[in-house]
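Thread: FAD/NAD(P)-binding protein, structure

OP (GT): Posting the sequence first so everyone is looking at the same thing. Length is 588 residues per the record. Can we get the structure tokens written out before standup tomorrow? I want them in the notebook alongside the other entries.
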Amino acid sequence: MSAHRPSVVIVGAGPRGSGLIERIAANAPELYAASGLDLHLVDPHPPGAGRIWRAAQSPLLWMNSHAEDVTMFTDETVTMHGPVAEGPTLHEWAGIDGRTFADRQLQGAYLRWFHERAVAALPPSVTVHHHPRRALRVSGPREGRQQVWLEGRPRPLPADLVVLALGHLDAELDPDQDELAVYARAHGLVHLPPDFTADSDLSPLAPGEPVLVRGFGLAFVDLMVLLTEGRGGRYEGDTYVPSGREPVLYVGSRRGVPYHSKIGYDWTGDRPPLPRFLGPAEVEALLARPEGFDFRRDVWPLVEKELGFAHYHRLFTVHPERTAVDWSVFEEKYAATDDPAGRAALVVSAVPDPADRLDLAVLDRPLEGVRYGSFDEFQEGLRGYVERDLSRSHDPAYSPDLAVFLGLLSVYGQLVRLGDIGPWWHGFFSYLASGPPGPRLRQMLALSRAGVLKFLGADLTVTAEGGVFRASSPTVPGFSVEARTLVEARLPEPTVGRARDPLLRSLHADGAAETPEGLLRVDPADGRILDRAGRPHPRRFALGPYTDARTPGAFTRPRTGGPAFRQNDATARATVLFLRELTGRAAA
């Protein structure tokens, strides 16, 4: 490799790394006319699919979105400086029904194809090298070439720029999890800490034995599938036929209910004009506050108003027979009212049926203050809750719910610019906007009726005492269940301090800044890593869920703005412009 040939190292060759390559290829014709470039991809997993979407996982595991709602390509809705380069969605590429929930192996094939296409679109003078290893650390002066040290390789990779495009990270146990793990070892129990479910060893979960599960989101759905169909059970219509090798799953969480079902109908008509009350101007005003801002006090009221606007715009314009005033009248009063109590009174006067009103507090905590007289009564009650959610999510008469989903996407695209706003918002977004496919909830109901799945309730408490784990919830006062196995059904928190990734930890030790929530701080303009004095590193970038600019995902629904695409484009352009200046100086 010539001393004058520029080199970029991208750590992480999954969908985020591939998306960055696609943006480098799209921007290079305009910004980079130099004679060559080496792109080094460092990832022990295959490029494109990466760890999460690799081929080597159960075909029973599905994507969480309809195939028509998955794309790796930019479109005119993405706010960016680079050129749009459109391409097929997953369903168009695979030739499958757009309403299909494809398995993750098929998504992995789509991502591998996308990666190969992105590499092929690079200028001929760009050479791509894949290193199937882990990156251990980065060294080098701020103003000079960097060295990326790889596992099992004695000499480092030289890099003019380094981009971390890491995905979900493994983490060391937090104090509470560590205490449970120590207790489990001391008493011969099974404790599975937070993990990507497809990587968990589920073999210790014995047939017929009770298993406590804390977490009712997507990680639980994967666990449910692998321990039922994955062990030979099958569905005959709405009935589950056990194989006899299933454990009995007792599941609870903070909310005590599963994530909301994916919407099961298509959008028709005009979309709500978003953003309306939380757009770039409002974000700039929040960022300009010298005293800073508080999420609950300053941001959440704007989110509530924006989501309410999306909901009522759809209700009044498509279902006017269910409203008491004209949309123009309601909209004017709604826009002028900043007091939540005043808006609530306006809604009550204009929307007669409570089922047509948006109540985010009830949506967030449906079991708040709810008590059941017996465990069996609660099983029936929660099955009814899931059935109602399924019915509503598949009924276009309630299409304001889909408008709220679009509002959530719009809000997320704005909030990503605010940096680390705490974990609550991301959990709330996932609960409402990124729930399981409807068929998974129907399977959940069948498993409940078969006695394989049992619901514990909200505000779940798990204790380790008497040589076992014990779980209880105020939803069913006086009831508790004990088991010798506890599974934490959720991903590890993406904190810098506890990340097992040696590269991230070394960057942190080297002075990279973290937020109070433990996320890596980056410049929102282009993803450069910030040090503890707030200075962006001229040669180091980071993209992904472990940063304070985390987005809903590396790919997105078409024509929804794709904040990850916007970030990829900004980082790609910063990369190419830096290299152009570098080669210009060398030529001079």
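GT: Both are above now. Quick notes for whoever picks this up: The chain is about 35% helix and 15% strand. The chain has three domains: 7-171+494-587, 175-259+437-488, 280-364+396-433.
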